[in-house]
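Final report, closing paragraph on structural work. Over the funding period we assembled a curated collection of sequence-structure pairs, and we close with a single example.
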Amino acid sequence: MATDFVFAADIGGTSIKLGLFQTDGALLDKWEIPTRTENRGEAILPDVAQAISAKMSERKLSPEQVLGLGIGVPGPVDSNNNVFCCENLGWGAFNLKQRMNELLPAVANVAGGNDANLATLGELWMGGGRGYQSAVMFTLGTGVGAGVVADGRVIAGANGAAGEVGHMTVEPEESLPCSCGKCGCLEQYASANGIVRLAQRMLAACDTPSALRSMEKYTAKDICDLAREGEEMAGAIFDRCAHYLGLAMSWVGNTVNPQVFIIGGGMIRAGEILTDRVARYYRTYVFHPSKDTPFVIARLGNDAGIYGCAKLVLN
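Its predicted structure, as stored:
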């Protein structure tokens, strides 16, 4: 029989998103299962194997019809499928393909990658970056991550840690530590939590009026809404965030020279309030051959990861 189907599993801290694709990119089915992180995540991969086996039975798919399984992991994964560490899953180092072959012998072809890299691959294949072959996608959410794809191939790095832009030092004078232990990381200013901390600091340093001052607790969305309404202080906070992002993206642009930058994650709801400012600072700092690199918004949302997992197998 023809190998017409690909499975995808995008492992997150709270849930695992699964997908069944045709090899032409058509998403036939998607579903989720909880991520069981107890006992150092020992149940996670057996749960994935069970979910894939159940779907094969439900769809009456033989092993010969399944080209493979792509798996996205929230941590470093090298080109040989070696996982080095996933702290939020409780995992240490192991070989992902070898482990899945033990758990799911019906699907021999298993390929793994970092979730941010695979989300980028998915957006290039079927999302906001469609039509391009190389991209860097910045994902702005609870943290700041990035995926790097060149000539249609994921760039994982020697230890699978390529794309850790959230921990680029953009403010050497920072005294407060990031969650990684360093100080002055991009994530401290450009994540959803980071922009709130940035707002708290900027409000404390001036007496400019702001509706934020009357809120007991505010979020990145509150700051965004006020900036969109034209409030001076909220606009200044977003501008500072955009400055750090544009600076970091200029370094990436000078190093990788992608065809396109893709912006994803929850912070994209800020829209042009953020992206226009980021692009302006990027063009201020980047080397002139890269000044015209376009910026696009991610389109696949939470499905980007499973699309990338499927494409990794097809590659």
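Residues 5-124+303-314 form a domain with the Nucleotidyltransferase; domain 5 fold (CATH 3.30.420.40). The radius of gyration is 20 Å. We thank the funder for supporting this effort.
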